[in-house]
Design a protein that fits this description.
alpha/beta; Aspartate Aminotransferase, domain 2; Aspartate Aminotransferase, domain 1; 2 domains; seven-stranded mixed β-sheet; four-stranded antiparallel β-sheet; 39% helix
């Protein structure tokens, strides 16, 4: 049975070129980074660290000393939001949207119980934040606005440049979770007026356990991990050199042709799945949607059942919310669009990579149709 992996928004396969770049730092140059007067073994690790930092910085239009390496997107989001909140002395309001990743929403909720004021922006039926509401909610107590670049479930790409302009004019910090969009949508932290930006390696065919946080020069953060003076004093602990080298290599091998390829696959999959009766695309179409994201609600079926039946056919997808499927809770993102609980439970996400093919899309469409028709035939709430 062939395996078709369509859960790339959760994690991606490691690119062979990335693995080759990492290997020497596991068994040959395995020292920890040392500074100018350290031994040659440590200096080799330091050289790899700083070259990788330059690659990451260049990819988003930043300076190398504005890049802090972390363990991934979750830690980067925590350091950005908590770090800014704890460093802020005279402001206490944090604004985010209702459809953010849990590593943003849970941090904001936690700060809300610790005395900070929190506000959540509504989104429209395609998942776009209300910019007028944002302008209204920013006041003289607002410290930080945190809005994701692209949504992890429905692929909606926010107008980050306009949001950044609003924040800059209002004099508030602007944090962007770009874990899903990085290397798929152009990012320029200067042009977009971004102060803090989170990215992760394992979403772009890099290794798990490594990410980065861009911190604009002059932005003050309170470290969450205390120790020695690693990562400019903002993230203590020995740097993961093999992972960081792999992260940089994944960035270097990313190409616009991969984005175009995924976009063609995405559109074919959307068109084919929407030919199935009583189906609905969640999120926008076209350029305002991530190139690799398809999220469809199929009425009268449970997404968990669709997932399991497709899994038995070798097709790997996620349902509802990838982060909540174990608890069978409806997706907060789908509900925020104004849909019902049954719509959330009947939603399935297909997320693509550069390794997927058009034949796989056609195979997936045929099998999804068969699975949906079979489940509806035995459903007590099926179409009448």
């Amino acid at each position: 049975m062939k395996l078709i992996y369509l859960d790339n928004a959760t994690t991606t396969a490691l690119d062979p070129e990335v693995l080759e770049a990492m290997k020497p730092y596991f068994s040959e140059w395995y020292g920890v980074p040392t500074h100018e007067y350290g031994h040659s073994f440590g200096l080799k690790a330091r050289e790899a660290l700083e070259k990788s930092r330059e690659v990451v910085a260049r990819s988003i239009g930043a300076e190398p000393d504005e890049i802090i390496f972390t363990s991934g997107g979750t830690e980067s989001n925590n350091l950005a939001i908590k770090g800014a909140a704890l460093a802020g002395k005279d402001r206490s309001r944090i604004i985010t949207s209702m459809i953010e990743h849990s590593s943003v929403l849970n941090v904001v909720r936690s700060l809300g119980t610790a005395g900070f004021q929190t506000s959540y922006l509504r989104v429209d039926g395609e998942g776009f934040v209300d910019l007028e509401e944002l302008k209204e909610k920013i006041d003289d107590q607002t410290l930080l606005v945190s809005i994701q670049h692209a949504n992890q479930e429905i692929g909606t790409i926010q107008d980050i440049e306009e949001i950044g302009r609003i924040c800059r004019e209002k004099g508030v910090l602007f944090h962007v979770d770009a874990v899903q969009s990085f290397t798929k949508v152009p990012i320029d932290v200067e042009r977009m007026n971004i102060d803090l930006l989170s990215i992760s390696a394992h979403k772009i065919h890099g290794p798990k356990g490594v990410g980065a946080l861009y911190v604009r020069e002059g932005v003050k953060l309170k470290p969450l991990i205390e120790g020695e003076h690693h990562e400019f004093g903002l993230r203590s602990g020995t740097e993961n050199i093999p992972g960081i080298v792999g992260f940089a290599k994944a960035i270097e091998v990313a190409d616009e042709s991969h984005v175009e390829h995924m976009r063609r696959l995405r559109d074919r999959l959307i068109d084919g799945l929407l030919e199935i009766g009583d189906s609905r695309l969640n999120g926008p179409r076209g350029d305002r949607r991530l190139c690799n994201n398809v999220n469809v609600t199929f009425k009268y079926v449970e997404g968990e059942s669709v997932l399991l039946h497709l899994d038995m056919r070798g097709i790997i997808v996620t349902t509802g919310s990838a982060c909540f499927s174990k608890t069978l809770q409806p997706s907060h993102v789908i509900l925020a669009l104004g849909l019902k609980h049954e719509d959330a439970h009947g939603s399935v996400r297909f997320s693509l990579s550069k390794y997927n093919t058009m034949d796989e899309m056609n195979y997936t469409i045929r099998n999804v149709r068969e699975v949906i028709e079979g489940l509806r035939a035995i459903s007590p709430v099926g179409r009448r």
